[in-house]
Amino acid sequence: MTEDNVVYIGNKPVMNYVLAVVTQFNSGASEVTIKARGRAISRAVDVAEVTKNRFMMDSKVKDIKIATERIASERGESNISTMEIVMIK
Amino acid sequence: MTEDNVVYIGNKPVMNYVLAVVTQFNSGASEVTIKARGRAISRAVDVAEVTKNRFMMDSKVKDIKIATERIASERGESNISTMEIVMIK
Fold it and tell me: Whole-model pTM above 0.90?
């Protein structure tokens, strides 16, 4: 789920990822990037908002980037949207 | 679905909203805002990416804002994430 200063959003509950972001900040990170693809993008926004509004009131969103990735699936190649939310403290 | 220069994302197919964005640009809008809440946020990113990559190559994302709204539901008040993607041409 996490790499240095990056939290990848999957299908787990929002709070799992909020905890991961808070843990990264508390371990000294000044910047944490939340990354998601496809339907997990909505959850990534939830994670950023819950982190900012309820756990780390001094954090804020520095940047949000969206893009498209090509992925291979059983039905051949297809496009999937991606999003990165960069949070700072 | 649309207000002046704003496209609200619901549960329809992505292409419905891409068409709405393209129509607004073709009717003279220089800026179109895509608005979504909750799970529709992922679809809003799809709409922006498909519009930019396949229909209006000269358009780009000017700004992305996320926030939280309080909404009343049968189970009382709850929070929902919101997103606004501002596209320009």
Answer: yes
